[in-house]
Structures are given as C-alpha cells and as structure tokens.
Amino acid sequence: MPPSIDSNEHQPREEKSTKKKSLFSTRPEMGTGHGMLFAVMGLVVLHGWSLFPALATLHYYNFVLKEANFTKLCSTKSMLTVNGSFPGPEIRVHKGDTAFVTVHNNGTYGVTIHWHGVKQPRNPWSDGPENVTQCPIQPGRSFTQKIIFSDEEGTLWWHAHSDWSRATVHGPIIILPKPGTAYPYAKPDLEQTLVLGEWYKGDVMEIITTALSTGADPVLSDGYTINGQPGDLYNCSSNATIFRMLVEYGKTYLLRTINAVMNEEMFFGIANHTLTVVGMDGAYLKPITVEYVMITPGQTMDILVKANRPRSHYYIEASPFADTNAPNDTSSTTAIFQYRGSYTPPATPFLPSLPSIANKSAAGNFTNLLRSLASKDHPVNVPLNITKRVFMAVSVNQDPCPATAPCGGPNNNSLTASMNNISFASPSIDILQAYYGQLTKKNAYLKRVYNTTFPDKPPYMFNFTGDVGNNTLYPSHGTDVKMIKYGAAVEIIWQGTNIGAAENHPMHLHGYNFYVVGMGDGNFDKKTSPSTYNLVDPPLVNTIGIPKKGWATIRFFANNPGVWFMHCHLERHASWGMATVLIVENGRTEDERILPPPGGMPACSKP
Ligand SMILES: [Cu+2]
C-alpha cells in the first residue's frame, strides 16, 4: 500500500535527550513523515540482557521488499519498495550500536541492500553490493544483515545495490551521538530528513537493461523528488505533490540531507536562508555557512538552518549540476519551508537562486570549503607516509558494435566506462565468497572468479584531459581487483579524462571513509600537485566528486580487511563498468582478520 498523502504538511522531529533511547529503539515514525506502518523493530532487551547498558544497543528491523503502486507526474507505476514506502523506512541508532536487518524479498527479482557509508569493520558479509560481497536475495528468500556501526556519527543512508533498483529502494540512516555525549555544535531544536530522489515514469530495471542492450544512453528521468514529492515546478503539480516542512520562527533545524539521485549531482538551497553545513557522510566538518551546497549522489550532509526570516513560504530547491555533453534531466524539484502562524503567504513562494546546471566553478567553490572538524573529540588521522599509491584514470568509453546489431551510442558504438582502461565485469558469483574460499582453502577453485591484476597506473600515460586520441577509446573488460596489504597507508589519485563525455564523477568506496587531501583541474602533476595538499584537516567522506577533466587525491589507512567495492555513484557509469574492487588482506592478529561468514548467505545460482 502506498503511503497516505492526504496530509503533506510535516512537523519536523523534535530533538529529545538521547539518553532515553539508549536501551530501547522504537522507530514507529520517520523523519520524512509519511506515517509509515512498517514492522517495528525496536526489540532491544533480550531476556536477562538489560544488565549491560554500557554495551552497544542492538536494533532489529524487518525490511519487506515488495511492489507497490505510486502515481507521480500524472503517471502510475508499480515499483519495488521496502515496506511499501518511498523513500523507505529510517534506521536510527546511536554511534557504536549494531542493527540487524532482515530483508524479506517479496518482489519479482533478486536484490541486495547496501548500508552506504557504514564501515562494517571486518564484516564485508553484510555490505551488500551484488556479486561483490553476496549474491542477490532471490524472490521468496530472506537474509539477515548485521550492520556494525563504529565511528560514524551523523547521517548516512541505505539503498539497493542491484542494477538500478536503488532508484526506489532507499532510506535514511540516522546515527546520534553516544548517550551522554553531544553534537559538536549548538543542539538544534528540531530535525528533518530530506531525501533527494530521481523519478522515472518507466520501470528503472527495464531502462538500464534496454540501455545496456542497445549501447545507448539510458532514457532520462522525468523529474526529481524531495521526500518522494516532485514539487511545484512540473506539469501535473498540485497541492498534493509538494513536501511542506512546517517551521516555527526562531527555531534552528537540522536538515539531514541525502542525495539518493541516480545520475546527477545536485545543487540545494532554501530561498532567503543561509545554510550551515556541519557534517557530511557520517563525520563532522568545520561549520560552513553558504547560500547553496553541491551534493553528489551517495553523499549526505547535515545542515543547520535557522528559521529567522519573515514568516512566509520559501522554496527548498534541488536542481542538477551536470557539466557535460552527456544528456541529463534539467528539471528541478521543490519543497516548501513554511512558517507557522497567521499571515498571507505569497502567491508563489520565494525561489532560491541556485547555480546553473553547468556551473563547474560554483560546484568546485563549495567542495573546496570542506574541512574536517579536527577537534579533540573528533580528531583526524591522515596518513603522511604513503606505503601504497595507486593512480586511476577514470573514463567513459565506447565498445565497438558487434556486427550482428546496430548500436545506439556515439559513432554507432556502445557506451561503456572504465578505471585504468578496464571496464569492470560483474562476476557470476560474489568475489567475497571466492576470496574467502581461497583464504580458508575450502573452495580454492573459485579463484577464477576474479583476477588480482588491477594495475597501479593506467596501461599508458597520455594527456588525460587534453586532446585524447581514438587509441584511448576502447577499454578491456575484466573482473580485476586491487590487493592491498593490511595496515597500508594508501593514497589513490583519481584522474578524470576527456575521453567520451567528460564530467564530474562522484567516486565512492565501500568499507571506508577517506580523506580528500587534494583536488584540481587538468592533469595531476606529481611534482606540483602534492604541494597543494591539505594534510591538516581534510574532509573525511565516503564519496567525492572528481572534478571534470581534473583529479582528486584520497588517503586512508587500510585497517578494515575485506572485499570493498569502489565505483562511480552516477548509476549509468557504474552500470557501464566504472568500478573496481579493493581487497584489503587480513592482518596478523585475530582482530585484524575478516569475520567468518554468517549463516544464511544468499545462495548463488551459478557455481
Ligand atoms: Cu561517473
């Protein structure tokens, strides 16, 4: 059953003392206010276990994957949801807790769920990317995932990780400070989760299947959404298609903003109100006060906004940032920041002036402001002496068209994508199982599932961001992973290229947050670029946009053994193979080794 939309006015959630919730996690409501009825969860105290309040609290959730009908932009479709809601249900924990989510698949195809930005120390088994750490949960089957929270604090999200199912299967993860500790900023009065989404009138799984078979770009989306509502600026907009956030004059609100959009980075702002960004990807930032933010798919931002303007209606707007020749949905979505009280609202709410769609410098100017909080309670730990360095060229490429069929991409070729000129080929069974089989010598024959040959640099160096010749156009295809020694001080330099349609790529790594120590335009220069690095307070994130025809350098300590997917979070690029896998090997001691597989891992259909 779709959520009721009879009332689309939403009272943000009040910030309560966190202490009360340390033992019981009851989650009957959700920040997005859809009045959801999904199964609750919250059974925390097992018999006799309530004597251990110092231990991390356990939370239990049931996620039922099922089809539900939704009507948006005057078009109705059946789509896959969790518990019938869009966006899906919220997970709300304290730092260091553990959640068990039992996913029941009542849908029609196999799906996996990923807990985006949750590091899952030593536990890749519950990370979720299809055929990387598990095989899909088939229709009629269930799988219980153990989500181990460690140092994350702030906002993250979960989403399906099978083809394009994440378009409709996603929801927030809220991680509060530990009981007895506080936010490193003045406590907001209330909080509101805002999930940015992308709406396709068609079936998203059909859209990507068709695109991959023709080699053409996937059809564009029909609009964007905020908390499931497209807003006022579309055909078919009405009073029932807009999300209204009711605010009280003088109060401060924490906006937990999640970019769940499929294929575009987004500018976001609220008319006449300044935003103060205090956190990102589950880590704190030095507060940044701005008129707009640029948030990539995969990123989350904690933003403070004070309701201190004349009582009225103000648009909250999200519009795409896409500086590229590739086609994009250019529309924008709105919600209303609506003051309580009696006044005559304007006929049309005030609109923020967000940067235009191709405004690369506006996007870069915002990203350059990001700094870790780097305080005593939230220190940084940036690797300084690098022991493993990898240079990765990131490209949108083409494949020659097979003689048997015409292809719909440029030059009558097929579109594809690569890292270091290798287009990632999804294996038939998951890499984690194959790796663990060798590690334990139980299923060593599975080693043919992947190669450990992902190179430390591209096959040849060229003027990546200049006039690229045709000789760089065609990648190879393979399931190549990068092996990393436990404890290595890793530096990865991502170099965007001008092959195909250059654009900003939001690169995401599972199992880690990483420090973004530098970024710049043009080719990375190993002599001059490192002198620009910020090794003092670089932002700690799980996703960062590599500037168009530019580079970004990240650093992290390889202290989480496992099989970790790395990919562009523009979904069409990931589908084309802009991805690889890092396998961080076991260390010497028991607590430096991956955990054994839990029972009930979904079976793989092919050996
Ligand atoms: Cu990309």
UniProtKB/TrEMBL annotation:
Subcellular location: Secreted, Extracellular space, Apoplast
Assigned EC number: 1.10.3.2
InterPro entries assigned: Cu-oxidase-like_N, Cu-oxidase_2nd, Cu-oxidase_C, Cu-oxidase_fam, Cu_oxidase_CS, Cu_oxidase_Cu_BS, Cupredoxin, CuRO_1_LCC
Entry's Gene Ontology molecular function annotations: copper ion binding; hydroquinone:oxygen oxidoreductase activity
Annotated stretches, region: Disordered: 1-26
PROSITE patterns in alphabetical order: MULTICOPPER_OXIDASE1, MULTICOPPER_OXIDASE2
Residues of the signal peptide: none
Keyword Plastid belongs to the record: no
Sections of the chain in a coiled coil: none
Enzyme kind, highest EC tier: oxidoreductase
UniProt keyword annotations, A-Z: Apoplast, Copper, Glycoprotein, Lignin degradation, Metal-binding, Oxidoreductase, Repeat, Secreted
Pfam families in the record: Cu-oxidase, Cu-oxidase_2, Cu-oxidase_3
Recorded GO CC terms: apoplast
Cofactor: Cu cation
Family designation: Belongs to the multicopper oxidase family.
This protein's name: Laccase
Lineage, opening ranks: Eukaryota, Viridiplantae, Streptophyta, Embryophyta, Tracheophyta
